[in-house]
Each structure stands twice: as structure tokens, then as C-alpha cells.
Amino acid sequence: xxxxxxxxxxxxxxxxxxxxxxxxxxxxxxxxxxxxxxxxxxxxxxxxxxxxxxxxxxxxxxxxxxxxxxxxxxxxxxxxxxxxxxxxxxxxxxxxxxxxxxxxxxxxxxxxxxxxxxxxxxxxxxxxxxxxxxxxxxxxxxxxxxxxxxxxxxxxxxxxxxxxxxxxxxxxxxxxxxxxxxxxxxxxxxxxxxxxxxxxxxxxxxxxxxxxxxxxxxxxxxxxxxxxxxxxxxxxxxxxxxxxxxxxxxxxxxxxxxxxxxxxxxxxxxxxxxxxxxxxxxxxxxxxxxxxxxxxxxxxxxxxxxxxxxxxxxxxxxxxxxxxxxxxxxxxxxxxxxxxxxxxxxxxxxxxxxxxxxxxxxxxxxxxxxxxxxxxxxxxxxxxxxxxxxxxxxxxxxxxxxxxxxxxxxxxxxxxxxxxxxxxxxxxxxxxxxxxxxxxxxxxxxxxxxxxxxxxxxxxxxxxxxxxxxxxxxxxxxxxxxxxxxxxxxxxxxxxxxxxxxxxxxxxxxxxxxxxxxxxxxxxxxxxxxxxxxxxxxxxxxxxxxxxxxxxxxxxxxxxxxxxxxxxxxxxxxxxxxxxxxxxxxxxxxxxxxxxxxxxxxxxxxxxxxxxxxxxxxxxxxxxxxxxxxxxxxxxxxxxxxxxxxxxxxxxxxxxxxxxxxxx
Length: 664
Fold this sequence. Notes:
By secondary structure, the protein is of the alpha/beta class.
């Protein structure tokens, strides 16, 4: 007799599968198998079987399921295998040899494997272990939190085994096998950073560098949009490893004699990468050195390998809808070549409004206008950790442009000068995502008239507008039509069309923020039987709204927390005071009364909050604060203030952390 937890719950005796009956009966068996040879209290079974309040006759129902399971096992010959389902007071115990449970055999096989020390032995052990899986763990059980947690734990063990098998393949030099194995797992678990990092390295070792970098940018975007976090150390380390290795490889190729390469000295040259990696050719150029111009120290490395045009954009955003006006505004701002200057646009708006998606969408639509490459960097201005230092970003850019690692200057000032020299005559697009301040951005701006730069930020970055003639492009919340269209793209148009009024209400309850709408769609996707009206009803409860638009410790609340963490203590207190506004509309006088402060000081604070898009100035001295921002500010309470005064932007012990995430 064999018991299966790694897939649909089943019991086989010989070649016959026993009939286990309905989901709750299978769930009782699953819970007993998850704790073999251990007494399981009746109350635990009841709590696990009913997600909501259990019925009055719950004990009788469970007892009936146990009785029928006992009869089913007995009919299958359980006694011959040493299997007994016993009652101990108000608890049950399933006594059996644990090797009859597939999850136990799986764990034993994985424990025996040593992928680094004995890879040849580990491969068959791990393949046998993974072969025990027949689908998602605990399929057929009820969808209550205890079973979801148990299934998640089993899935984590499976993924660890997949990663171990990939390591064993890697040690054996079978990189293609490792990449194929990891790819399948990564598609189903796109936010598991260790898995993606391993896949990136495996792809790079098979010569698929562009695929490896694409996985990094895809994952970085998903982490930002869905969880509101930046890539962790393992993912970032894999990315930097590949960049360094590519730069070293380009340096080796550049040292080889050029084969038919041409250098271009004509204005407006366009470089092309030859598929065999030889020196680049250019349109309308002549052979030899370029026009006798002086070459800055280190710049010759970039010129010699100008053909390796970097393509660092993340993947185009999935299910991108609308924003035609903003896309056109970016085109008008960045396509202007009449000034002789490098055009610059700043896409600004509140957390979760889709700034990164808009900028990346435009960049992909117009990538052909920048044949010498597209650079992308997350400046981490509003993230969990420290913002990215300009020197760190410049190093990545210079490596991507072909500068040898030893030629990258150590100071940000020198690296910025070299960067501007290298790109002065190129047609290059630079996308700087999630900037905190104008000072962080300025060293990263290219100087050539054929370059263009898009910056995204939650701040307006008025400094760039003043000193660098940046063109501001504001993003606002979605209206009813666009918001419902986004829900339709996520859930299917039929499901949304069934209840258009509820869809409009969901847009209102989510303040029209794409991030909040995506979180709502995720809730509905996980509950296919729910109508939109049921979620709308739950979201009307302001005490639950942030939690429902969240997942674990990330989500809309986390996105707002990133913005609030950058405020001064006085501005954070003012924001919490504004949360008490009855309708979210107020002027400086009303705000001062709520904050208990003088009007002039409050006016200055309101302007700073408006710059950070935490309030909106609809007209002169008419401010609004969104409902979600009010709810977050109320939740933060005193914890947010203590975090501000501590100087580290954290909120120890606070519950305002009802999760959220943000596409910036």
C-alpha cells in the first residue's frame, strides 16, 4: 500500500487505487499523513477543514470521515501492511511505516544526494526523488490556510531539490541540462530569486548571455511591480558576474586582430554588431582612426568595442494598457533634436501608478531610434535598502559599453566624465528608474545631442527641470474605463463584464492605482468562484482594505512606506494629521488646524508632500489625499514617527506594514 501527498491525494493497494470520497475526507487523510504516527487532535482537524466558522455538527462530520477512511483502508488490506487508524480520546493517530508515504521517500532521497561532493551519484537520486511528484502537492484537499501552508512547504522542498539537481549537472559540466531544468521551474516561480540566479548562470555558461540578462531584468521588474522590493544579493551578484564576464570576453576579442572592421568618423554614425563578434562596421564611415580627435583615458576601450551595443532594457511590461497621452508626451520631449542638447524627461507620480511600466514601454517602442544601445538602471531611490550610488551605476554602464574593469575610474566624478566621453557621438537611450533626487541623477546623464534620457521618480525632481531643462511627464491614477480594462486584462473580459458596476467600484476602492488593481485581481484569481462584488464588499471595510491589497509583507502599504520613510519627521507627522480629514479635501488652514501647527509652516509641508505625490494640489491652496494614503497613515500611528526620529526610516514593530508592492 502506498500513500501519495506529492500530487493528488491518493492511496494505492497493489495496482488498485482506493476510492477516498469527497475533498474533506481526502483532507482528513492528508493531515494524518503529514503527521504520521502522531496523534492529531479533533479540534485541529476541524480548524483545518473549514476556512470560515465550522458548522455546529463539525465533530460529527469529521468522525464520519474517519470512520469511512478506516473502512476503506481495511478493505484495501491495511492490516497486512501494519497500518492502523486509531482513536485516542478526542484525537486520531494513523500508525504506519513512514516509507509508504511518497513525501517521506522524497525527503530520504534528497538527504542522500550530495550534488557538489558526489554529483554523479546525486543526479540519479535527485531525479528519482523528483519523479515521485505527480502534480502540485496536496491536490484535492480543501483550500484552507493550514493546507495551503503545508502545500507551500512541500513545494519549497521540491524547488530545493530542483536547484540541487541543477548544481549537480553544473559540476558535471552538463550546463544545457541544468538550464533546461531550471527554466521549467523558473517559469512557474518567477519571483524565486535563488532559482533565477542559478538559471542566469546556467544560461550564460551555455553562451546565451542575452537570455541570462533578460531573466534578470524581467525578475527585477516583477519584484518591483508585484512585491515592491529590489533584487536581493544573490540575484544582483549573478547579474554583476555576467556583466564582468562579458566585459572580459569583449576585451579578449578586442585584442585579436580586427577582421574587416571599419570605424566611423561621420556625424550621426550608426553602429551594427556583426554576428561573429568581429569589429563593428558603421554607415558612411571610413577605415582608420576617427578624425584625429583626442581620446580620453579609458575611452579607447569603448570605441574599440562600440559594436557591442548594450541592450539592458527590461522586458516590455505585460498587459500594458492606455497611457497614450503620456507616451506621446515622451515622444515629443525626447525626439526634439533642434536644441542641440541631450533631451531629458521625468516621469513622476505616486507609488503604484505605473511609472516604470510607462517608461519601459516607451523605450521598447522607440528602441530602433537608438541603435547604439539602451541602458537601464534601478536607482533604488525608494526601496528597502540604500539608494544606488552614482559610482555603482556608472560602473555598470561603463562595463556594458565595453570598458575594461581595470579602466573604470574609482570616483563618481571621473567615471561620469568617461561615460559622457564614450557616448558623446552615439545614439543611446538611458532609462534611470526610481530616482530619489536630482543630485543622484545628474552624474548619470549623457551629454551627446543624439542621446536621450528618461527618469522615473515619485518625486517631481524639480531640480532637473530647473537646471537640466527636463520635461515633466505626470502619471495620474486610472479612470473607471482604464481601470476596468486592466481588471479585464488580468481576469478575463467575461468575468469583468458579468458585473461592470462592481468593477467600477473596485477601481474606486483601489484609488485607480494599477498596483492596487493588480493586487485585487490577484485576490480574485486565487478565488475563481468569487464574483467581483464579493471582493468589493470586503474592500469597503477600511480596516481590512490594505491587508486585502497585500501579500505577506509587501504590497500597496509597503509601497507607501517607502515614500513615507523618505520624509522628515515633521512632514510625516503632517501626513498622519491629514489622514483625519473627513473627505480628503482641505486647504492650508484646515491642514494647520488638524496638525496643530501654524499655517505658514503647514503650507511648506503641504508643498513638500505634493512634490512627493503623497498629496495632490488640485488648485491653488486646494489639496487632496487619497483614501489608501489616509488608511496607511492612520495605520502607521506612532510607530512611523518613532521610525522617522530614529533616522533609519524604519518602523519597528509597526503593523502599518500591511503588505504592498509597487511598479514605480
